[in-house]
Amino acid sequence: MKNHTMRRALAAGAGLALAGTLAACGGGSETGGGGGEGATADEIEAALQEGGELTYWTWTPQAEKQIEAFEAAYPNVDVNLVDTTGTAESNQALQNAIAAGDGIPDVVQIEYQSLLQFQLPGQLTDLTEYGFDELESLYTPSTWGAVSQNDGIWGLPQDSGPMAFFYNQAVFDEHGVDVPTTWDEYLEAGKALKEADPDVCIGNDTGDPGLTTSLIWQAGGQPFRTEGETVTIDLADEGTTKFVDMYQQVIDADILCDIPGWTDEWYAALNEGTIASITFGAWGPGILEGSVPDGAGDWRIAPMLTYDGTPVNAENGGSAEAVPADAPNKLLGVGFLKWLNSSDESIEAFMETGGFPATVKQLESDEFLTYESEYFGGQAINEVLAGGAENVVEGWQYLPWQAYANGIFADTAGQAWLGETSLADGLAAWQADNVQYGTDQGFTVTE
Amino acid sequence: MSAAPPSIRPAATEPLAPARHRPSRLTARVSRAGAGFVMPFLIAFALVFVAPLAYSLYLSLFRNRLVGGTQFVGLSNYADVFVDPKFWDGALRVMLFLAVQVPIMLAIALVAALAIDSGRLHGHRFFRIGLFLPYAVPGVVAAMMWGFMYSDRVGLTGSLNDLAGFELLVPYTKQWLLVSIGNIVTWEFVGYNMLILYSALKTVPTETYEAAAIDGAGQFRIVRHIKIPAVRGALVIATVFSIIGSFQLFNEPQILKGLVPNLISTSYTPNIYAYTLSFQGNQVSYAATVAIVMGVITAVIAYIVQLRGMRRDS
């Protein structure tokens, strides 16, 4: 009856755990990771010329075009593309493959916030040994910071998600409300819109952990610090408190629609024009163009809302590609990765199909910056988005178990959006859950 | 019958030895044949039932950590489960659900079965299939369908509230959410239980009803003294199934969580808790422990209900 889903879940979980146990028994430290590896740029190039087969896991729609270009440049290499459909699915599949010691990809897409989850147990290749430290100057500081933690380079940035303020100009015009540029104005504009039409809300949020952490980041908070196996969690630091004081007013004013993002209801509301604005990462234009056709011509992009007029920004989403420590064709994988995320040819193919790069050169190119988007009423959107990348606060870190932390966010912090608790208390309870979890997972957690 | 009583045979005499052995060879042959017949079942049973269970038990003796890997911890996971407030939060919620939803659902199923069996209902075949149809809808689809109808903005609830002019229905609130889930589950399983009870009613010989009618019994008397006693066994079975189903509550809250994330926690039911632990939290061993403890609780309660039901039967 109702139990089949659970049975399957348990069976799958059981399989995963068995593999984990066996791997633990086998003590696979010799197969990968360890010192003495690495290669020079020439050796990598020679390996690519010689050729072979490699497997690449990703959920980016741009991969096919990139692989086409790669195989044209290196005809002896054959790339097997596996579409992992999304970040959660990909993480789970990668965990399974690594635990089983079988079917491990040579190159895999990992969201910045999930990198540590794989790096800490020693499951990723340190690309410093392959001379990747020389590539640092190619990337924006925030994306490079995300891949180079704990004394190593664990991937190459593919894209980035500096946030921006996406708004429906037509809705603001219809009700004669000015588009906000600061959070204070956002609060006022939200009240004005609601007064003009109770069905319209300036934004939607039911307690999205990804958005919340990004907004804490923007406010200058650094609630999570990871130093090896020591994790510090402080969701009451100065920056976090600054965000909480502001956002509590937004919640209390009841100006947000309680529609969770990425649901049918959400897309319907965006198409109807009842949600007047969204704070998205720079990957946002693709989402609106693809799923909100009724908003064509009405939407615009402005720099991220500020607290006091000084432009300060944060990232939301974004991925790197990495080479697993036990990748079967490591040298080829390293070579492909280097080409994939640092060659002009690949990055241009990535951008042609709507990707927002992480490389400074492309972000500053005229062609990119002057591109006028029809959907956004002819606005040069990349100029705004790229401008936002320059103001991203450096030094932010996610928890080593961010995916799980986000999963349990609604249990505690999410209650603030229901009015059951204050945002400050909700975040404190979320912190307590994370301290407990981190300790259970073997970290030394301090508050 | 296999071995002869020793008293009528002198012990250990040479010619008798084969006679003593023959029956045991027969026994062996018989048991080999028997084993052959039960083997397919036993293999399937061992593979799909015993092995996962044993494996879960084995898993529950370890602890998975991001730092330090997997280590043997004996029974300490069990000690943790018994004082885990999140586990008990979910367990008590499904018990409350069980205590309210199952009686309502079975009462509706019984009334429906009696009505269809009464022969006084026009188009009883239509009603029978109509009531049963929701059971054929996959649980996930049913939950999505109801989840949409419950929406105050785009669903049926919104239309009804607009019609009433005030918040008549508020399925997505802390107070009403469990009732909303109960409504979905009842809708899904009334037909299934009705069919169990209806088939039990069909086994009553028509002569019994004729005799009762000749004795002057009215319809309500027949229901009380013949039909309800006749379905008691089936009712016990339906109750046991429903108890198991309630304790395994998963699909409906898990689907609704996507629509109202803050109302359904990751420990809303024991199954959701185990799922979260294992697939988001990398705690497969602890998830296995939660599943085993919940399984034992379910088995005990189902067994008590069955014992009580059967005693009243005799």
Automatic annotation (TrEMBL), chain A:
<feature type="signal peptide">
    <location>
        <begin position="1"/>
        <end position="19"/>
    </location>
</feature>
<dbReference type="Pfam" id="PF01547">
    <property type="entry name" value="SBP_bac_1"/>
</dbReference>
<dbReference type="InterPro" id="IPR006059">
    <property type="entry name" value="SBP"/>
</dbReference>
<keyword id="KW-0732">Signal</keyword>
<dbReference type="InterPro" id="IPR050490">
    <property type="entry name" value="Bact_solute-bd_prot1"/>
</dbReference>
<protein>
    <submittedName>
        <fullName>Extracellular solute-binding protein</fullName>
    </submittedName>
</protein>
TrEMBL record, chain B:
<keyword id="KW-0813">Transport</keyword>
<dbReference type="Pfam" id="PF00528">
    <property type="entry name" value="BPD_transp_1"/>
</dbReference>
<protein>
    <submittedName>
        <fullName>Sugar ABC transporter permease</fullName>
    </submittedName>
</protein>
<keyword id="KW-1003">Cell membrane</keyword>
<dbReference type="InterPro" id="IPR035906">
    <property type="entry name" value="MetI-like_sf"/>
</dbReference>
<dbReference type="InterPro" id="IPR050809">
    <property type="entry name" value="UgpAE/MalFG_permease"/>
</dbReference>
<feature type="transmembrane region" description="Helical">
    <location>
        <begin position="284"/>
        <end position="305"/>
    </location>
</feature>
<keyword id="KW-0472">Membrane</keyword>
<dbReference type="InterPro" id="IPR000515">
    <property type="entry name" value="MetI-like"/>
</dbReference>
<keyword id="KW-1133">Transmembrane helix</keyword>
<feature type="transmembrane region" description="Helical">
    <location>
        <begin position="126"/>
        <end position="149"/>
    </location>
</feature>
<feature type="transmembrane region" description="Helical">
    <location>
        <begin position="230"/>
        <end position="250"/>
    </location>
</feature>
<comment type="similarity">
    <text>Belongs to the binding-protein-dependent transport system permease family.</text>
</comment>
<feature type="transmembrane region" description="Helical">
    <location>
        <begin position="30"/>
        <end position="55"/>
    </location>
</feature>
<feature type="transmembrane region" description="Helical">
    <location>
        <begin position="94"/>
        <end position="114"/>
    </location>
</feature>
<feature type="region of interest" description="Disordered">
    <location>
        <begin position="1"/>
        <end position="20"/>
    </location>
</feature>
<feature type="domain" description="ABC transmembrane type-1">
    <location>
        <begin position="91"/>
        <end position="305"/>
    </location>
</feature>
<feature type="transmembrane region" description="Helical">
    <location>
        <begin position="176"/>
        <end position="198"/>
    </location>
</feature>
<keyword id="KW-0812">Transmembrane</keyword>
